[in-house]
Amino acid sequence: MILPVAVVVILVIVFVQKGKGSSEPVQEVETAKAEKGNITAELETSGTIGSEDMRTYSSPVNAEIATADLQVGKLVKKGESLITFNTASLEKSYNISQLQNKASDAANQKSLEMSAKGSEQAAQADSKIQSIDDQLNSLNGQISELTAQMEQSKNAATEAGNLDKEITELDKRSEELKNKKDLTKEEQKELEKIQKEKNKKQEQRKAYGDVTAKVSELENQLKNLQSQAESLQGSKAEEQSKKAAGEASVLTDAEKQGITSSQQAAKLTLSQSADSLAEAKAGIRAEFDGIVTSTEVAAGSAVQEGAPMFSIADASKMCVDFKVSKYNLTNLEAGQKVTITSLDRKYQGSVTNIGKVAEKTEQGAAMATARVHIDNPDDHLIIGLDAKLKIELGKKTDVLKVPIAAVNSDSKGDFVYVLSKEKLQKKYVKTGISSKKNIEIIEGLKEGEKVVTTID
């Protein structure tokens, strides 16, 4: 290490007192030559052993733990069973979900079938109603036509009746005149006139024919058409009732969407129950070789889905976390080689991460956290124990170096005492990297010069 300034001053005073008024050589000192060689800069510190992959396992289900083969510090192998669950309650929930899903499917299917039948029924009824309306329109046209004919026939019957009355009156008057023994000329003329009138009336009456029979026939036809119309009206009312009943059972789009959502929800619930049961039956197995670092459950305890149960550290990804001061951070880099010592066993590794956040210690010093990856972990590493670290901060070959004890410093910088012809000469130097024993001299010395390391 570099000597403090106070010690340097004392050494200088000793040299001066020994040299005043004396031809004797100065007291003996130990020296070393400035020579070329290799220097490996190292940082020795300690840290805490841990794992780069610390995994916490949470419960995948709401269930009771049947077995829990967990102890903090236990080594576990990949695939090893760590937790098993009591599946009785989950099996019951699954069976209930299954029954509810079947019941929901049956009810929804019935509603959809009724809706389809109702829609078909309404469509068929509507088609029949349209056909009945067409028939009614045709009948109503015929009834209107017959009604008009009836009116004409009745009028003709009235005219025929009037003619019959008139002919009867003429016959009556003709008989009266014929029954007389002697007719006057006037009466004879009247009789002739009556006969002519009667003949004329009879010709007129003959033109009407049997209008009474025709009226009767038309009346019968009209009654038949009206009967058909009434029957069709009854059929139409029946079909309208069927149409209304069918439309009443038809589901709206919103109701169909509700059924679809209900089916999806029931299936999702069943799927979740099945998944939970499957996960509970599978239990929890180690995903890698590791070390149990914490456990919060035991056999017989009930756990909720998502609740943390235990943690495992990956034994194949071991590391050492250590604190670094600002004085060493300038020389520390990712990738630097590290020798790790734990329980008298040595491991090799490298710096993988240098934290970007510094925290103050109890003494107030700001320290950052860095991590060393262990290349060759084994079962002897124990998480939480301290480990010694020797970090190679840098390496230079064929550089000028002196023992680190030869370099001192004052307010002007680093310096050494050079022994030449039994005289000491103070020389300021520029230093580079240093190991535990030697330090690089960049400027201020030449190869072969003797530098003072200690004084007897």
Blueprint (SSEs and pairs):
Blueprint lengths: L4 H15 L9 E5 L1 E17 L2 E5 L4 E6 L6 E2 L4 E6 L1 H91 L6 H24 L2 H39 L3 H30 L1 E2 L4 E6 L6 E2 L4 E7 L3 E8 H4 L7 E6 L2 E16 L5 E9 L11 E18 L4 E3 L2 E8 L2 E6 L1 E5 L3 E6 L6 E6 L1
Helix pairs in contact: 2-3, 2-4, 2-5
Structure notes:
This protein has helices at 5-19, 88-178, 185-208, 211-249, 253-282, 326-329; strands at 29-33, 35-51, 54-58, 63-68, 75-76, 81-86, 284-285, 290-295, 302-303, 308-314, 318-325, 337-342, 345-360, 366-374, 386-403, 408-410, 413-420, 423-428, 430-434, 438-443, 450-455. It has 456 residues and is of the alpha+beta class. The chain has a 6-stranded antiparallel beta barrel with strand order 2-11-14-13-12-15. Strands 1, 16, 17, 18 and 21 form a 5-stranded antiparallel sheet that branches. A hairpin with a 2-residue loop joins strand 17 (413-420) and strand 18 (423-428). Helix 2 runs antiparallel to helix 3, helix 2 (88-178) runs antiparallel to helix 4 and helix 2 packs antiparallel against helix 5. The radius of gyration is 63 Å and the shape is rod-shaped. The two termini are 18 Å apart. The relative contact order is 0.21. Residues 1-24 have low confidence and may be disordered.
